[in-house]
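Changelog-adjacent note: as of this version, every example in the card shows the full chain rather than a window. The one below runs 420 residues end to end.
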Amino acid sequence: MQKSQRPNAGPSVYFRNRQSLLAMTASAALLACLASANALPLNQQGGFYLSTRPNGLVPASREKPSTKPKAATDDVAAKAKGVLSVVIAIDKQQLTLYSDGQPIAHSRVSTGVPGHPTPTGVFSVIQKDRWHRSNLYYNAPMYFMQRVTWSGVAMHQGVVPRGPASHGCIRLPEAFARQTWGITKLGVRVIIARSDVTPVAISNERLFTLKREPAGSNGAAQATSPETTGGVSVAMEFAQLGAQRSGTASDAMAYAIEPPRDIANTGPDLKFAEPRPLKPGPISVFISRKEGKLFVRKGFEPVFYVPVTFSEPDRPFGTHVFTALAVNDDNTTLRWNVVSMPGTGAAPAKKSAKGKRVEPPPAPARPASNATAALERVSISPEALERISELMSPGASLIISDQGLGPETGKGTDFIVLAR
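Full-length structure tokens:
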């Protein structure tokens, strides 16, 4: 009797035929997968790629190969060796990263909506946090955060649609936020303007220079050490200011300016009469037409201030940001550039009560000075110039503006000059 004719042989033949059929089907499917896999790029093969390991199908990364993006990142990092600055144009919703005044990277951004506008003016990076989360908006992630004000304005990773969408911050695409976060350092200048502004080279004999060491100097004069303050003629003014202050509230004032400011925003108290160590980093100088003073900060802390005078005191300056980029071959002068902020328009005419008559618009303001004219209108005492020259270095900045020291300038900040 043949096996096929034995009792109960039918089911065995059935199962053997079924197994053969399944094996052929699996083989055909495998050949089809191989043909499809070979026809597609690696990042489109259904989320998996074939492994050389036995029985190995491993998940493929959802990110595309990073050869070109990494090359671009490395290229920007290689160019970012000079003095860095950031310019954000609200009308273009664009950020430009500059190195020594040359653009090295661009990115689209999303700034504040009309109800929560992004402030315009002169800022700097005052804090960085890789994994920052908002303490105002339900712990929302704001990774690669670079803060520019303590009141809550920052550049950070976020959703970047084609237009303003934030509550005042500057949102960046993830890749660019990560890239710039790894390049910038605290103190990098950030300029936010309604329209695009660009740095231009400038040379003027009134720009600050480096102080040359006198021949045979042994550096023993502590009073004029580059890392101390006091010991020059401005110390007399500081001593007089300190003698006039009394009481807890006035002791917390960093600057004796009327009207007095909120002590929380003026920085730490200064010991004007005595030299003191200064924090590292380039200095910042701010000349305010509103206050008639020149202020100096270093390492986010106040150093000193002195009165200054102006020619044509009623004529506006505008706002101009000068940056020292490098020392020239003479080892005394510096190479500078300047960014001039766009001016504000004339105030509109006002209607009187109940619309009875329309008040005439105010007389048109005199045009603001350009950067060169602004420099030439300021008179600074020789003692102050000497002290500033002792502290000068590449990366130092000078801001000339009609504005005064605003409430955003305070402890742990550089000068913050709001344009509106």
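Structural remarks: The chain is about 20% helix and 25% strand.
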